[in-house]
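Our preliminary data section would be incomplete without showing what the modeling component actually yields. Below, a chain of 200 amino acids is followed by its predicted structure, encoded as tokens that our downstream tools consume directly.
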Amino acid sequence: MGINLGTAKFRGYWAVFLMLAATPLLAQSDGTAGSSTGGGGSGPVSVVPGVPPMPVVTGPLELSVIYPKWKDLVDARDTSFIFGSTGNGTASLTVNGYPVPVWPNGAWFAWIPFPQDSLMEFHLVARTQADSAELTYLAQRASRFIPPRAPVWIDTTAIQPQGRMWWPAGEEIPLSVRAAPGATLRIIQIGRAPSELQSH
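Predicted structure:
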């Protein structure tokens, strides 16, 4: 249940920012709208029939990050996305030094390399003609086992099952573990002879 709710929330964010990214480009293709990156519009940006115009926001700079939240564990390898708002659609923005487009309503969406640290730091810098703002934002990366440069290793985070469990007497317990390819694993049980598993 928790996974489904999290997926639904993620898809909702994705759909919203996909619309923000796509509608100005569609409008430009038929010559009915201005720039999609802000910085000069004085009114709502026309899009397509049936879709409300995107408002142009020119308030004070107020940097915020919508995703990822602090409680989110980001499972990303090298590159992923982060998005939020500047509070001003005319602002320019960089995230960790990478230029990021800002839409007329102040929203932004960045697809950038993520830091490899378990505690990731994102430095946001926004500027307008009259003001500037900075924000250092922290996010957590999901722990991922990196095999050491050794001929034999065991990923202790991948052993299943873990902890105490109830199991019918006389039935086999399925066991899985990640280890170096070709390694032989020995399972030692109290009161029983050791058994072996072969890693593939």
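Residues 154-198 form one domain. The helical segments are 2-29. Preliminary results of this kind motivate Aim 1 of the renewal.
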